[in-house]
Amino acid sequence: MIIVDAHQHYWQPARADYGWLAQAPATLQRAFLPRDLRAQRATAGVQYSVLVQAAPTEAETRYLFELAQEDPAVAGVVGWVDMEASDVDARIDALIRDGRGLLRGLRPMAQDLADPDWLARPSLDRAFDCIQDCGLSFDALVDMRQLPALLRRLRRHPQLNVVLDHAGKPAIGDGRFDQWTSWIDELSQHPLLQCKLSGLLTLLGEPVHEDAIEPYVADLFAHFGPQRLMWGSDWPLLTTRADYAHWLHVAMTLTERYAQGSQAEVFAANAVRFYALNIDLPNQGTSHDLTHDAN
Fold first, then answer.
1. What's the pLDDT tens digit per position in 28-71?
2. How far apart are CA 7 and CA 235, in angstroms?
3. Considering only CA atoms, which of 20, 22, 21, 109 is closest in space to residue 61?
4. What is the SS3 assignment for 243?
5. Under a CB-based contact definition with an 8 Å cutoff, are residues 203 and 175 in contact?
6. What crossing angle do the helices spanning 214-224 and 244-258 adopt, rounded to 10°?
7. DSSP labels, 129-190
8. Overall pTM > 0.85
9. Which domains does the chain have, with CATH numbers?
10. Pick from 84, 122, 121, 123: which is nearest to 106 by CA?
11. Is the distance from CB of 30 to CB of 295 less than 8 angstroms?
12. Using an 8 Å Cβ cutoff, are 186 and 218 in contact?
């Protein structure tokens, strides 16, 4: 079975545009580049991935385009753009041109912004219009504070191709399941919203066992079904809790438990369709419908 990792990162701290790394665990404060993941990905049996931005600069997005040339497994890039810039449409056009087909979506780092209502600001309408008109996707990097604003944005842009990163980052360690699932219930009613089965292990505080994620995974399948969930490793943040192959095994086991027979969708086809990746999926019954030209 072909497996697509819908969410992984590379970064180089020497670039000095990863401000959040200063507060991250010491083990993450180093370079993570294609050579660091290649063997782990091959051992796990993952053939392709979507490379996601980790710094709020357009320069880092172009750096990811360069890294993708070193890593043939990268099938697409989710970048960053200044969504409040007066020339945001020209900036997006420039990234599309420079990416030569690699740019598949954009992601502001909303979770790090002081204003929890930032995503709902009318000043962002032009940027969202352009994302939609250019056929790009939108990755929603939010936690529970920003979920109300995300819902308002979805109502304003009902045709937006959007995916909720890391299941909206539920506070698993705090046990606030009811608050999170109530928002997931509302968000999942937006028919174009997808959700990433990613980042959950790193939300666990010590000494919480990884079994604590199971009710959240069960709820995601109950709300989104296997047709709107896609697996992502969230590597290298994953390394603070587990290795690459272990998280893949956990996610596959839970997928088989709550959506038997749907691994081809959750671990490949949904990501290929959502990001319009140029990946053929032979023997999985989806290549004709889900393969698109990325250019």
1. 999 999 999 999 999 999 999 999 999 999 999 999 999 999 99
2. 8
3. 109
4. coil
5. no
6. 50
7. HHHHHTT-EEEE---TTTHHHHHHHHHH-TT--EEEGGGG---GGGT-HHHHHHHHHHHTTS
8. yes
9. 4-290 (3.20.20.140)
10. 84
11. no
12. no
The whole-angstrom separation of Cα 162 and Cα 68 is 23
Burial of residue 206 (CB within 10 Å: 0-12, 13-18, 19+) is exposed
Residue that the structure tokens 């385009």 belong to? 65
**Looking at this protein, which amino acid is placed at residue 293?**
D
Pairwise CA distance, residues 226 & 260, whole Å: 9
Give the length of the chain: 295
Q: Is 8 helix (H, G, I), strand (E, B) or coil?
A: strand
Taking only the tens place, the pLDDT of each residue in 178-230 is 999 999 999 999 999 999 999 999 999 777 899 999 999 999 999 999 999 99
Lay out the sheet containing 103-106: strands in order across.
4-8, 48-52, 74-79, 103-106, 137-140, 162-164, 193-197, 229-231
Q: Which two tokens stand for residue 203?
A: 């939300």
